Amino acid sequence: MLVKEVIAIIEEFAPPAYAEDFDNVGLLVGNNNAKVTGALITLDSLESVVDEAIDKNCNLIISFHPIIFSGIKKLTGKDYVQKTIIKAIKNDIAIYAIHTALDNQYKGVNDMICEKIGLKNRQILIPRKNSIKKLTTFVPNQQAAEVRNALFDAGGGSIGNYDHCSFNVKGEGSFKPNEQANPVIGSRGNLHLEEETQIGVTYPAHLESTLITALFKSHPYEEVAYEINTIDNENQHLGMGMIGELENPESPTSFLKRIKNQFNCGCIRHSDFGDTQIKKVAVLGGSGSFAINDAKGAGADIYLTADLKYHDFYKGDKTFILADIGHYESEQFTKDLLHSYLTKKISNFALILAETNTNPIKYI
């Protein structure tokens, strides 16, 4: 397989359109058309990870975090970022980063955290806005099923656990072809009335061009009538963070000790707590201080995230606990998630979980 073919499989799961605007996802180093000898899956791309890729005959690194985040004006090897990039280029190793595209995926980073903790009734904590669109088109009754199925095949009409979702209304359409027209139905210069079906389907915004292509290929008319609207509904299956419930309530002390053990945390920093039982848990892998109010507003008893600052902890109280479990610790299982997904899709070459520990933080 070529690098670009592997990327296509990755992006079926976590499309770049899912990523935040500030992020830098995609192929960051390397040649799209290179043949893949093996892929190393890691949380971070570091010089030591490139060394591991070389040792294991992997010319593709699939990384959660992007090694290139802000602009680089020189490549002189003055820091760890430049050293990593130079070594990768010298050894013809491609680096692909997925980052917030996987953060926002419903079955992504935060779902993995919930799975490890054992949370039920999971929901997105901060659903993505302006990510759902609706296509409405008008088709002769006899061709309605064909057009509708083409839209479904292109990704339209999927809502959560349901697909092939549409709404259809029968009515009468009118049109009058001019002298330059080549009408499939009706004749030039004459008003025509046609029994038509109005088809409406919702779709993820990033699939718009695919859906429009499918519409034009399947629609019988020379001029296709259609409307596109952005829906204000929040996307309940795309967004940052997740919230769920424990099967049985736990005391804060018991719960945090369990988390420390499960996530192998060097320590857990937390806000003050009383004897309130933990039932509803909000999580957000990586830096999550921006979602504190969302977690509290959603009724969470505790919010697990990372990179909280001193003053962030004042936002906690005895009924809402803030807990910083560590950046690396909260995202460490991400590479297992990617490995599990890709091994179901690819059998052409080795998919290897990196053994290099890329956590820059150590504990005494």
From TrEMBL:
Pfam families: DUF34_NIF3 (PF01784)
Annotated coiled-coil segments of the chain: none
Xref: InterPro entries: DUF34/NIF3, DUF34/NIF3_bac, DUF34/NIF3_sf, N-reg_PII/ATP_PRibTrfase_C
Entry keywords, A to Z: Metal-binding
Entry similarity comment: Belongs to the GTP cyclohydrolase I type 2/NIF3 family.
Protein name (database record): GTP cyclohydrolase 1 type 2 homolog
